[in-house]
# Entry
Amino acid sequence: MAGSIAASSSIQRCWVDDPGAMSVRKTILITGASGSMGGKARRYLEALGRYDLRLFTYRNPHDDPALVQADLSVWDENWVRQFEGVDVVLHMAADPSPTSSWESIQRLDIDMLLNVFLATAKMKAKRLVFASSNWVLAGHRFDDEPLSLETSPFPINPYGSAKLFAERFGKALAEREGISVICLRIGYCRRDVAENRPGPDMRLGRWGQQMWLSDGDWERLVERSIDAEDVSFAVVNAVSDNAGMRWSLDEGERLLQWRPRDRHVPVTTLPMRVTEWFARRRYRQIRRWLGRFPGWTW
# Structure
């Protein structure tokens, strides 16, 4: 295993802004620390300087000595031991593509997730923060109602289905093992554009722009997910406060004291509007057709 981190007690005392106060320094383990979302979380937490980090990656192309390289989809006591003494696990590692095959999703979004969740429980970490996805509710794209915790799940691909399964397994862990579990349904955070700038070139048209998540809002959400107290289980929509968006922000504000600060007003073009009109019409036709068969969905 490349990179070795001694498992030691995570309880250390450190000074905070108020010189008369003390806080407990936490140890944070990040899976997928070289990926897009995990990498942003890593850099932000490193800059804060208030946490001790343990960083996992599947690939380490730049030979970063801070990264522990391991295949978390295969249970191995060598990497499991690195979870000892951890306060919070940020599970960011996964196949991030909504178009991936079931074969890839099975290994990287289900097998790996189960191993990480079980290692978290075995080593008695206090909290697990999981990178879920807006794709859990993707089938509601052309509906009109707000999207909240009460909205029925509606994944339309293997990726979204695996994220839904992970949320439910996280709920079971919270109830049976007493681990605090927070699932973040991440919106549209661009990996292919510098500074994650939103715009009409984003996929999924207006829907994609309304789901945009800024780097700053993501960073603050990660911090609040680590430090928020008295959270047993939560599912939080991780999107910025974009014009016209339907994603409820109430859970994040109520449980994590997080409210996005950034905002994007979607920009639409004529081809985009035409494409969206036909997609919406096709979607409603399919829903009406499936309505003839009780118990079927799409």
In short: The helical segments are 36-48, 77-80, 102-122, 158-177, 205-210, 215-227, 250-256, 270-290. Residues 213 and 270 are 24 Å apart (CA to CA). The longest helix spans residues 102-122. The longest strand covers residues 22-31.
